[in-house]
Structures are given as structure tokens and as C-alpha cells.
Structure prediction request, 661 residues.
Amino acid sequence: MANALSFFGGFKLTFQHLGRARVTTGYPAQKRAKQPRQHGRHVLNRYEDGMEKCIGCELCAGVCPADCIYVRGLDNPPDHPVSPGERYGYIYEINYLRCIHCDLCVEACPTEAITESKMFEFSFTNRADAIYTKAELVVDDAGLPKHLPWEDWREGEAAMTGGWMRATSPSGSAAYEGLTQWSGDLGVGIRAAEGGQSENRDDDATGSKQIRESFPRHLQPIDVPLHLKGPQKLISDLKELRNKIQIRRLHE
Amino acid sequence: MHQFAVDPLYAHGVTLAVVIIALARVLIAFAALMGSVTLMIWFERKLISDMQSRIGPQRWGPFGILQTLADGIKLFFKEDLIPDQADRFVFKLAPYLVLVPALITFSIVPIGGSVTVAHHTFLLQVADPPIGILLLLAMSGISVYGVILAGWSSGSKYPLLSSVRASAQMISYEAALGITVVTVILASGSLSTHNIVVTQADGIWHWNVIRLGVVPFLIFLTAITAELGRPPFDVVEAESELVGGYHTEYSSLRFALFFLAEFMNTITMSAIMVTLFFGGPAGWVPNIPHLRWLFPIIWFLLKTTTFAACYIWFRAALPRLRYDQLMDLGWKKLIPLSLGWMLIVAGFIASKAWGFGMIAALLLGWLLLDQAFRLGQKRAASLDSFLPTVGERPVRGDLFRKRSNGEKA
Prediction:
């Protein structure tokens, strides 16, 4: 008898699903929030004074497992230097037909010059378009990545371009949590440190709040973590508010 | 008894107007069926995605309603491949052997009552042949040929296996299907679908689903699901076992034709079920002048859509049956049950005494059958029912090495 009832259990379950929230999104029209450390298209950052961060050391090209980066360094012209160092990246090319978005270049870079945005939808119809040069990679005067015609940029994908850098630099270790050890970026200033696993995090600044908040909408009521529903949610919200205030004080 | 009417269109001889009306009926039915197939495919994909918490088609047209059209255009422009080993003529013929019966079956479905246009009164169904519902059985028999020939002519192993499965499955379930149809015919006293609907027109208590007890309807629903090869009886298209099914080697338009036929059959069988058990277009008709003809059509569409949704619900809720379970259900359960129920109905139509006599006899028969199945099962489990082993079974590597070294394992 129990067997026969479980046979109809499938009908009940599928019927219940009619009223539940959808777990998928209408993709091209609507995108999910991206992970804070999403690996997307690269950007070449600049200092707050507009100088390029790249010093043409070619470490990124050396570490690249896909051999997709080509760099040539050149001595800075003394009268109008491009970077604050001795040399600067004279040629910088990334072949996106080869790039596997492993972000080893980001880890190798000594000056945090190369980081990755969260944008990965840039299918091109021309092979020449696959090779991004300095003209495409270097951020514009506002410090934002250039939006090329074939790229599908959405809100939030150009923000927080240094997600993986923040996670892998020494400051990303638990001991230095909440502290930064990287230079400021043009238009943005010094990017906030990543909160990591502890309670002590600045979610708004790191862009990780969005993902955690948006995720429960896709879960079934039974699967939502306890601290995200009911009175527990209120308590955890208050805790986060307290953390935020503490972090702001720390910055000041 | 009811006064059965023949199609009044042909009552006064065949004139040009009659021919035009008859042709118009065919064309409209064809167009409506084609249109409803595209809607059905969309409906199935959308409903099943709702039941799986997905969004489903959404790109083409509002709510993705033109998705089928886009898929059709895509398939139309794909390369049409014919495998080297294929029997070319039969390979090309097979899709039409599936499609044409699917189209013809729909012609016997009464969509509404009768309508008068330009002094010609006619029925809202393409044809009302005296053999009526037998056409359904004949056409489903022919469509098996399409499936078998498609699998055979592909010159490929898996499609062949699939078509062998299909033939066995369809033959097994056709028996239960036929007997259930006989039960309905016994109650209606006519083979003509129009007359079957007319006998159910007097209200919900006259619908065959209630008049015959719910059992024939349930048998018919199960058997027709198996006949269509729809989940949970889709062993013919079991992707995990057979790559794709009898249409594995098909591509482009021919592939599309198989799916067109499959969904067309789903609609037609829903319509047939409504005709046989749910009074077809019967239902409440408000007294609005000039619009009274419309309501039977709406009732018919509503009922048919409900059954189409049922099929989709089956697909979402039920896992696929194993092949032996499928055969067990067909031969050991559905055929005896439908046969017994037919005898009971026949008994009650003759007289009450006969009816109760039949019930008693069938209870006895059921006990005997049950015992027989039990004995049969015991026999299958005994040692001598297994085939003798041929050759040696593969042995573990270490044992094999020992044995080849001449040691005793």
C-alpha cells in the first residue's frame, strides 16, 4: 500500500513544483549575480594618478599555461613616463582564443596591473577581434574597462575587477583579513579587502553580499539556511550591521 | 435507443457545394491539427519545465510560443542524411507511414455538433464512416509499420532494437485497447464516433467513463499511453538504453516528421479518449442565438487539453518502466482485466442475473489466473529454467593468471 502511495507521490511533487520559484533565470535577458571572484575578461589597471601599473616584466607571459599573453617592455621615456617604474608595457596582447581564464597572470603580477573583470560573454566573429591589445585592455580615464561592441557588459560586471587578486594577495590570508596591501586604482581608489570566511566582512565593498542574498530566492523553503529566514535572519542582519560599522571605523 | 443520424451533408445527393464543404472540412481540420501540434509541443515543454522549476522556452514570441516554429525552421534547413547501410526507399517511406495514420485518425473525431452553412447542415468532423472507431485501431496498426520499418531500414543496431521493442509493445497493448473499445461499443450500440458521442449527450451520468465504471477508462488511458510510446512507457525511445530510438539515424525534415506524428498522435488520442469516455463535445450550452454551435467546440477543446496536460504530467511524474514490467502490465494485468470487465458489461446489458453471474465467474477466473501466475513465477526461479552456460564466464585477473599457470584456483 505504501508502495502504491509513493507511486502517486511523484504526481504530488510535480504538481507542487508548479507553484514554486524557478531555479533558472531567463538568461540573455536576465543574468544571475556573479561570484565575487568570477574570472572574466582581463583589464589592465592604472594608478589613481593615471599612470599605468604594468611595468613590462613579462611575468604574466611567463606563467601563462596557455601561452596567450605577449608582452614587450620598454624603458620609460624620461620626459613623459607611462608607468612609475623603470619600464612599462610597450606591447600587451592577450589572445582570447587561447586564454583559459586561470588567473595565474593575476597571481604572478607584482604590481596588480592585470586583473579580471566578471564579464565572460564576448564572442567575436572575427579572429583579429580575439587578440586584445593595450587599446582594449587598459581601463579608461574613469577607471572602467572599455566596452567593446561585441561584449555583453551588464551592471556589476565592470565593478570589483580585482576579485581574484584580493583573494590571492598576502592580505587575503586570514591573519590580514580586513586589511589591504595593494595600491589604489584609477577612479576607484583602494579597493576593499575581501571578508573571507569570518564574520568580519564588508559585503557591500566586496560585492559578495549580492550573491548570498540573491541565492536563497532560488532555493526551496526547506533548503534556505537558518540564518537567512525568520527571527534568525533578523539577528544575523543586526550582526552584519554591527560588523559593517566596525569595519567603517577601522577604515577611518 | 437513440435515433442515430448519418452525416446530413450527404443526405440530398452530392453537389458542388457539398464537395466544397467536404474539402473545407478536411483543410480546416488539417490546419487546426498542425497548429495545435505546434501549440502542443510548446505546451508540453512549458508545462514540464514548470513542473521541474525551470522556465522553459522563452525566446521566440510571447512566452516562447513560437519556439516550435523556430525548431521546425531549424530542422528544415539541416542536412538530410541517409546512412550508407540504409534501405533508401523504405528509409524515406517510413516517416510518412507514421505521419499519415496520425492525420487520418483525427478525421473520425467529432469536434462539435452540427452546423448549417448556406442551407447545408453538416457535422463538425471530417468523416463519420460506419466503421468509425475501428479506423483508430487500423491506423494505429499501420503506424507500427512506420516505426518498425524506420528502425529496420536504418541499417543500424539500436534503431532495430528499438523498432522490435515498439512492435512487441504496440501489439501487446493493442489487445487491451481493442477490448476496451469493444466495451464502449457494447454500451453505445454503434461503431460510429458520432453515434458514440450522441449516446453520451444527455448529461454527465451518461458519459461512458461513469456508465461503464471507471475501469475501462483507466485501462484505455494506460494502453493508449503505451500505444503512443509516451512516458512512462517510452522504452522505444529510451535514450539511456538505445541511444535515441528508431529515429536515431534520421535527421532534418524526416526527423521532424516523426516528432510531428508523435505529438499529433498525442492530441488525437486525447481527443479519442474524450470521444469514447467523456461525451466528446457534450456539455452545458447557454441559449445564445447564433453562438450555440460554438460551445460544444469549446467543451471539446477543454476536455482534450486536460488530457494532453495529463500526458505531460505522466511524463514529469513517472519514471520509465523496465521492459519486462511493461510486458507484465500489458499481458498479465490489462488484458485479463479489460476482458473481464467487457464480459461484466455484456452480462449487465443482457440482464442483471447474467451480470452478477459474470462477476461470480470472473472472480473464480481471477483466482485461477492468480494461481497460474504464481506457479509460473516459481518455475522461472527454479534451476532447470535457466539456459545451460556457453563457454566460460570471465574470471578475475588473479584467478586467471593462477589458472593459466596450471595452479588449482
Remarks:
- Chain A has nine helices and five strands.
- The longest strand of chain A covers residues 87-95.
- Residues 230-251 of chain A form the longest helix (22 residues).
